[in-house]
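Our preliminary data section would be incomplete without showing what the modeling component actually yields. Below, a chain of 149 amino acids is followed by its predicted structure, encoded as tokens that our downstream tools consume directly.
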Amino acid sequence: MLRIRVLACAAESYFFMELDKHALIRIYCIQMADALRQFKSEIFQGLANPTRIAIVELLRDGEQSAGKLIEKLGIEQANASQHLAVLRAKQIVVSRKVGNQVYYSIRDRALIEVLDILRRYFYTQLSTTVNMLRKAAREEPKPRTGTPR
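Predicted structure:
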């Protein structure tokens, strides 16, 4: 059996411990799962504003200048700059400068698919709610039986 000696840290104390390859694989998988959750969290934080989602949706069909985005969104330049900075920091969009113009595009089109899935999820939830309300409206209130209080 393969055993590997690793340096571990607990409560600021360092020590060596031996782990077999299966334990190392489990640790690696846990760390990867945590890293993936952190990555997803960062993306959702970047999209946690309706204006930023609108920007990403406007970039669905390709690259656009900051000026064009501002015009289509009807927001102030300073506000757009803040939102675009968040989207760049979260690596959701990329930018390139040509002269005095800055152009933005989506880093990965997979994000558009995620937004499309969320749109379908929204409409499914909305449909379910509407159907429940229709059913409730069709049902007549039943008379109460028993002694009045």
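The CA atoms of residues 95 and 104 lie 4 Å apart. The longest helix spans residues 110-138. Preliminary results of this kind motivate Aim 1 of the renewal.
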